[in-house]
């Protein structure tokens, strides 16, 4: 079942939709379940809700595989506010190439993740039969950047993390410095990937396929020394959309939630 709720992201006083998937047997059992938090929640479950009418169809896979996991999809903020919330640090240079505007983007990611860890997760744990110590996070593109950030600042909360086609280049230097300074012993599983065809039509000043690949390789080189169980995949035909991430979702879930270490 997928339930829709309205919440207020209190640091910004912004109303937001969350979508909560519970397994088919949830109402017929007294079991407790791990929770996976996913960014861009409007793209997680249903094509008709998705930004580009393509979703991960995560609920369909979970039902078919009968996995005992609760998923909380948090819708993204509209427009450029999405970049603000998913960017942990301000980037005063990228606005021109991404939006054609001389604007500073990012800088709200820390407050956004703090809200999830300190307010949203306790609310979900209080109202659903969760396993509070078994909490995961997953995101793609900017959602991948903020997921790795979350692993660094809350490694004992978000213990299993997946980052697909991540836009690390948005805050490359700051993220590398954070990883270098972080104790990630609490992270049990970490999955990363990047496609070789992330950028279909590169612009003069925007990110390139080479930038995506190099950016992810640099982050992985730091994380592999910090996290014992880590997997990094370069997807040869990998492109930057929900259909590509939908294809990889079963493999990522299997890795994150496998009991075999």
Automatic annotation (TrEMBL):
This is Carbohydrate esterase. InterPro entries: AB_hydrolase_fold (IPR029058), Esterase-like (IPR000801), Mycobacterial_A85_antigen (IPR050583). SUPFAM superfamilies: alpha/beta-Hydrolases.
